[in-house]
């Protein structure tokens, strides 16, 4: 089993636009299965995610917040009892300007600390679709879902 899943994409958008897509519920609901997040974005604060019908999907914590380049938070899925029974893992979003192509932003999403959470590791392989959906939405204005 892997301890970390890494997803990298290059987006024709500014780092600020990518950051807004990550942190704004207006964008998020279009590429992240209709979910929204409630948080103050302060390090140590709650990071609660809710499904489209308002059901609590995750009750996590902000670990790092440095706009527009770094967001890290814990991850524990509450929508499934087996996933909720596993220890928290971590998701880190890194936004970087591509030096060779300044009109392109590199987005890296790392979901790690998964060694003790095998069911979570299997379920979060859907990050590929999430990251692709974010890219598509920013570049075309149309969601994948």
Mean pLDDT across residues = 94
Say what the CATH topology is. Answer: Alpha-D-Glucose-1,6-Bisphosphate, Chain A, domain 4
Percent helix among the residues? 25-40%
Number of discrete domains: 1
Question: What is the N-to-C order of secondary-structure elements (H for helix, E for strand)?
Answer: EHHEEEEHEEHH
Continuous helix count: 5
What is the CATH architecture assignment? 2-Layer Sandwich
How much strand?
35-45%
For the record, what CATH class applies? Alpha Beta
* Largest sheet: spatial strand order: 1-7-6-5-4-3-2
Question: How many β strands by DSSP?
Answer: 7
Q: How large, in whole angstroms, is the Cα Rg?
A: 15 Å
**CA-to-CA gap between the ends?**
29 Å
Q: Could you state the CATH homologous superfamily?
A: START domain
- Characterize the overall form: globular
Based on secondary structure, the structural category is alpha+beta
Describe the structure.
With 145 residues, this protein is α+β, with helices and mostly antiparallel strands. It has a single domain, classed as 2-Layer Sandwich (Alpha-D-Glucose-1,6-Bisphosphate, Chain A, domain 4). It is 28% helix and 38% strand. It contains 5 helices and 7 strands. It has helices at 15-23, 25-31, 81-84, 118-123, 127-140, and strands at residues 5-11, 36-39, 46-50, 56-66, 70-75, 89-98, 101-112. A 7-stranded antiparallel β-sheet has the order 1-7-6-5-4-3-2. It is globular, with a radius of gyration of 15 Å. The N and C termini lie far apart (29 Å).
């Amino acid at each position: 089993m892997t301890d970390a899943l890494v997803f990298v994409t290059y987006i024709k958008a500014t780092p600020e636009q990518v950051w807004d897509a990550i942190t704004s519920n207006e964008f998020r609901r279009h590429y992240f299965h209709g979910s929204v997040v409630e948080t103050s974005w302060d390090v140590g604060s709650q990071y609660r995610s809710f499904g489209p019908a308002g059901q609590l999907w995750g009750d996590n914590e902000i670990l790092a917040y440095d706009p527009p380049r770094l967001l890290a938070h814990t991850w524990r899925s509450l929508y499934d009892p087996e996933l909720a029974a596993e220890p928290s893992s971590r998701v880190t979003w890194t936004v970087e300007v591509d030096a060779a192509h300044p009109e392109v932003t590199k987005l890296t999403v790392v979901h790690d600390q998964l060694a003790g959470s095998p069911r979570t590791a299997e379920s979060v392989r859907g990050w590929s679709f999430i990251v692709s959906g974010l890219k598509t939405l920013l570049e075309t204005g149309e969601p994948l879902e």
